[in-house]
């Protein structure tokens, strides 16, 4: 399940309402991997494709290709600020990740007492 905080939901609903045409939803396209870092491209789309799956919450519909849903499951979407600009922060925790802490970063060094 995808988690979207209330501020992000409100911002997405407002953005969709300002679009000149009705949209089917917000398309998410993940790329990268857990070790090198994930990126998610976002775009409003007019229609769904036959391979798309959708998820809706409080008036916001997210759309992704069927093959991307395992990567998107469990992601958290929040409104955030970076460099003085407000935007979405999408944190992915892909299904099947083998990392104990949800990151492929090396663990803290272990001290070996002699």
Describe the 3D structure.
With 114 residues, the protein is mainly β. It is built from 2 helices and 7 strands; from the N terminus they run βαββββαββ. The protein has helices spanning 6-18, 69-72, and strands at residues 3-4, 25-33, 37-45, 52-57, 60-65, 76-82, 85-91. A 4-stranded mixed beta sheet has the order 3-2-5-4. The chain is globular. Mean pLDDT is 82; it is low at 105-114.
DSSP strand content: 35-45%
Helical percent range? 10-25%
Count of helical regions: 2
Major sheet size, sense and barrel closure? 4 strands, mixed
Considering the chains and any ligands shown, give keywords for the structure:
3-stranded mixed sheet; mainly beta; Hypothetical Protein Aq_1857, Chain: A; 114 residues
Quick overview:
It contains two helices and seven strands, in the order E-H-E-E-E-E-H-E-E. The protein has 114 residues and is mainly beta.
């Amino acid at each position: 399940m995808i988690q979207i905080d209330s501020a992000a939901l409100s911002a997405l609903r407002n953005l969709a309402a300002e679009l000149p045409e009705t949209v089917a939803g917000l398309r998410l396209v993940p790329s990268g991997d857990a070790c090198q870092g994930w990126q998610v491209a976002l775009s409003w789309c007019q229609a769904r494709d036959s391979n798309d799956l959708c998820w809706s919450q409080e008036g916001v519909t997210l759309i992704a290709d069927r093959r991307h849903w395992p990567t998107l499951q469990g992601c958290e979407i929040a409104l955030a600020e970076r460099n003085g600009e407000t935007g979405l922060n999408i944190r992915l925790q892909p299904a099947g990740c083998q990392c104990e802490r949800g990151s492929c970063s090396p663990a803290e060094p272990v001290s070996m007492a002699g």
